[in-house]
Amino acid sequence: MTGCLVATSITGSNKPCTGCKIATIVFARTLNLSHIFLTGFLSADSRMNAPSASSRRASSRRASSRLRFLTVRATAGDTVILPCYLPPEISTETREFRWFKGTDCVFQRRFSEENEGAEQIWMMLFKGELNLTLKDVKVTDSGQYRCEILAEKKEEIAVIHLHVAEFKLVSRSEDVGNPNVQPLDSTSSDEWSSSFVDSHDVFYGDDVTLSCYLSPETSAVTMEIRWFKGADCVYLYQNGQVTEGRGYEGRVSVITDDLQRGNVSLNLRDAQRSDRGEYRCEITDGEKKVENNGVYLHVSGSLKIPQTRPVNVHVGETVTLQCYLTPRTSAVTMEIRWFKGADCVYLYQNGQVTEGRGYEGRVSVITDDLQRGNVSLNLRDAQESDSGEYRCEITRGTNKLESDGVHLRVTEFILVYRSEDVGKRDRRQSSPHVVFTSAGYDITLPCFLSPETSAVTMEIRWFKGADCVYLYQNGQVTEGRGYEGRVSVITDDLQRGNVSLNLRDAQESDSGEYRCEITDGEKKVDTGLFCKILFTFHNLQIYTLSTHFTYLITVSYKSIHTP
């Protein structure tokens, strides 16, 4: 092929291109960019392989799928851009494009070497943008616009419906009077949408305002105002009279004093689960009608309890049963109830507190934290009788939220993993214990009774997952399968409440989670203590932490060098 130049020709390096199968920039007479025009060439191989009838039908289907539809709304005086995007597969074949309003051609551009400003034309094609800009639009500019290109054949690639009104609806007061209207973007690569939806997230029972303003500022006193949720009208203002939709009675309104300034925002009180959905405003003024693009209302709320395992404390300790509103919302005006089983042990209502029988002076919430949605229950001087499942219930208006339950175990003793924590009350959770080891080494998983209590007559079980790997019962020891001869406790230390597990000769099969369980007659306590043993050939392993005591034991081989 002759006369075919690659992009480096711009710098003066003219290289002929042979066998070129793609569209190419061709320079006619000179390398001056103002004389660039686009054309497409087929190589000899391509000409020999002419498209079959089936490929032509496929091409027709692709052309049909390239047609895009869009609706653009504007106000008289605005500058409007009607977007048209040229598909990459045909961009370099384009010879001409036209914009039509109805059957009238309103804009035409041919691509040829004689065009002035050919550089700008080339950039237009390179970007794939054939947008039509209309300045100072008028109501009479409303109508259907089409973008048509001429490549190998004539093809429509965009159909846009332009609605120009004397006024428009905007969602922000600062946008009132702003003449600039941006084209709506497509919601996907396959479909363009005519609605650009804002969203509001509110908590059950909250009041919310769905903002909407006439632009330019225009009195809406004599207009009809309709707010829809989906296809249902939830609010109608007509001739100074108001009609509220079913289920919205007494909960929806506009501020009539603000209608003079074009504020047609909808106020919704006491948001309900059923209020979730898309809302839009429609304004009618005589024969003129305009609507906004809609707003989506999310109504949600839940109570989150971080504890997923039982909470273990010993008699006399103070414990916090954590619970939070999500999304974080002030609970100051809500009713807060904490239950143990079916019995209410704590009630916060209208700023007043009522404590359940047997819990007088021992239960509270931190009132300063209610503003941040923290409704955790503090329980002081825990008693064995306090053991059980607790749950929180929040009421706001007609909405009620209930948390999952959290199990509290109050025993005469608990299990701790640090000897220095034995006997301490109101302990803070410390950092998880980490044990590093190498394959074949011996390790100890520490565990102690607190307060210091003899474990000689108790049952001691250590589990790996669901499998018991060590059992001490009535002075006798049973070792789990695969752990024979490798697990033990120091029996002389049981008198001091030391129930730590010694594991000898760490193996790859030891990888997993371990926990300790102590039984003393009818009393049972579980550490919630997890030991993660990881097997690796490296001397260092990054460890992960859990919500309780976590041991991460890294098992690794040491290199042995022999002469």
UniProtKB/TrEMBL annotation:
Gene3D superfamilies xrefs: Immunoglobulins (2.60.40.10)
Residues annotated as domain Ig-like: 51-158, 179-291, 306-402, 440-526
GO molecular function: signaling receptor binding
InterPro entries per the UniProt record, alphabetical: Ig-like_dom, Ig-like_dom_sf, Ig-like_fold, Ig_sub, Ig_sub2, Ig_V-set, IgSF_BTN/MOG
Keyword set, alphabetical order: Disulfide bond, Glycoprotein, Immunoglobulin domain, Membrane, Signal
Pfam families linked to this entry: V-set
Leader peptide range in chain numbering: none
GO cellular component, one term: external side of plasma membrane
Lineage: superkingdom: Eukaryota
Main localisation: membrane
Locations listed in the record: Membrane
A GO BP entry: regulation of cytokine production
PROSITE patterns in UniProt: IG_LIKE
PANTHER family: BUTYROPHILIN (PTHR24100), BUTYROPHILIN-LIKE PROTEIN 9 (PTHR24100:SF130)
Protein name: Ig-like domain-containing protein
Taxonomic source organism: Astyanax mexicanus
